[in-house]
Amino acid sequence: MKKNIGLSDKIVRIALAIVIAVLYYTNTINGTIAIILGAFAVILLLTSFINFCPLYLPFGISTRKKV
Length: 67
What we know:
This protein is mainly α. 57% of the residues lie in helices and 0% in strands.
C-alpha cells in the first residue's frame, strides 16, 4: 500500500471530519444525514491516519510530494 496523501490533503480531511463532528454534537445535523456524514467523517479520519486513499489509486492521483 503506497502512501498517496500529502500533508495539506491530510489537514483538510481532518478539518472536515472535525466540522462534521461539531455539527453533529450541536444538533445542527441529525437523522439519516448525520449517519451518512458521520460515516464519511470516519472514512476521512481513517484515510488521513494511514496516508492512503483507495479512490486515488485508479486515477493515479497522489498529493504526496516526491522525495
